[in-house]
Model the fold of this input.
Amino acid sequence: MDSAGEVVNDGKITLEGFTVAARAFADKWKRHNLSFPPWSWIPLINRTMLKKEEGYLSLEKIIILSSLEESAEEESLDVTADWSEKEESVDLTVLVQNVEDEAHYYDYHIVYSASYMVPMLYFRGYSSDGKPLSLDVIKRDLPSSSVSLLLESKWTFITQEEHPYLNRPWFKLHPCGTEEWIKLLSESSSSDGCQIPVELYLVSWFSVVGQVVGLKIPREMLI
Done:
């Protein structure tokens, strides 16, 4: 059983380990990524009656303003965060309201896959009127480096399917190659071979997966 202080050896993680890793990830994000709202742990009613804690992480209503994309040196889904740092005197709420017709909103959920025994990233985009964004529109919102990853990497392909808990169509990054590249990542970063502390599992995972959707994590989170 994975728990705090233990390590992951084979790229996979148990449900108990995922819960530990999720809380550690959310805590590090909150402390080191102040320009973003925090990830929230959404608890679920356990469906197996095995008394195991179950839930997923949620980061919602992240805004990208398409009118600012062209002037940015590097396009990113944290455009509003960069803007607020550069123009501290600007009321971001007013800014969003003024260009409401150009705002795209994104929700991200990190969900545990019992079949693959790895995390999965589900996401969706929608306009200010709530209309879902197509994958083609979403790709136009992504930074060019993310689009390159989607085209070149064999494991970063996007599919659309029903959200496992919300019963609505969401996009997801398919987890088929996650186990293998987590192994490679842990081997390259650990002197002990293919091992990674449970508490750092999601941080390491998201350092790669987040780039695909334009979300980067601060380096301090990897420590």
About this structure: The chain has a mean pLDDT of 78. The CA atoms of residues 76 and 209 lie 14 Å apart.
